[in-house]
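User: Here's a structure from my thesis project, written as structure tokens. My advisor, Dr. K., wants to see whether a designed sequence matches the one we expressed. Can you design one independently, without my sequence as a hint?
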């Protein structure tokens, strides 16, 4: 397990940008940047991440993996499982994982993960950013149909922010260490598929840079790429792009739903 050092900010441009600056300045693995607000929060595919003060958990961790670089793409999948664990353990909330690493409930986005590589004087590093919507505070109209929050799904029960952070860091450390084991890749992919409705038999539309197509998911490759079978029977391997569900998933959202 890495040694954790937390840097807290009231407001910052982006926790990922700050973690990158720290990594380039020589920060060790395990430095964790947490902010109450981001003014330039970012998500996958260069999208902005809405980050008002105290409405979300905005966190980035520096990792310096020494395992082979071919396993690095699995860090994002491991992080998605860590968020899944934290929501279940701290909030009694069962979520779904949308490929590659968005956390959704009823097909509405609850959390996102952005893993970025950066070259530093001490070698390559991964900056792992995690954003979790705690409350739907001042959510823009254009996001109201596609996003949700812990408060919205937990009937506005009080959220213990520090418990979420503690559970997230504990699970992230464990999931990350799994990647160092001989069976770590297989175990991570197996558990991702077991906890995601997108692993197998999900009808999806895949949007790439220059095309889009529909198909049915057929599991993951060894590096976390998504396998999608088209209507012609061909299996296409998706390593980058946007995957959207064609039909809603049938999942239970709350463990303790009454």
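Assistant: Designed independently from the structure alone:
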């Amino acid at each position: 397990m890495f040694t954790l050092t937390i840097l807290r900010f009231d407001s910052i441009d982006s926790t990922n940008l700050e973690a990158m600056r720290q990594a380039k300045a020589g920060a060790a693995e395990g430095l964790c940047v947490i902010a109450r607000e981001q003014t330039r929060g970012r998500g996958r595919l260069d999208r902005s991440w809405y980050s008002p003060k105290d409405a979300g958990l905005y966190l980035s961790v520096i990792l310096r993996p020494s395992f082979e670089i071919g396993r690095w793409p699995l860090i994002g999948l491991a992080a998605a499982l860590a968020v899944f664990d934290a929501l279940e353990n701290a909030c009694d909330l069962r979520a779904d994982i949308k490929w590659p690493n968005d956390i959704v409930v009823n097909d509405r986005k609850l959390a996102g993960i952005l893993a970025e590589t950066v070259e530093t004087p001490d070698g390559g590093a991964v900056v792992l950013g995690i954003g979790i919507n705690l409350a739907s505070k001042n959510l823009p109209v254009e996001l109201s149909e596609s996003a949700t929050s812990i408060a919205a799904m937990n009937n506005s029960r009080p959220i213990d922010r520090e418990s979420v952070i503690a559970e997230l860091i504990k699970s992230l450390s464990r999931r990350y260490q799994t990647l160092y084991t001989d069976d770590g890749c297989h175990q991570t992919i197996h558990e991702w598929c077991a906890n995601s409705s997108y692993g197998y038999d999900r009808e999806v539309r895949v949007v790439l840079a220059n095309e889009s197509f529909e198909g049915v998911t057929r599991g993951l490759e060894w590096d976390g790429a998504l396998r999608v079978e088209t209507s012609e029977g061909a299996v296409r391997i998706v390593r980058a792009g946007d995957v959207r569900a064609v039909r809603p998933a049938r999942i239970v959202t709350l463990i303790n739903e009454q």
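When you compare it with your expressed construct, this may help: Residues 251-258 have pLDDT under 50 and may be disordered.
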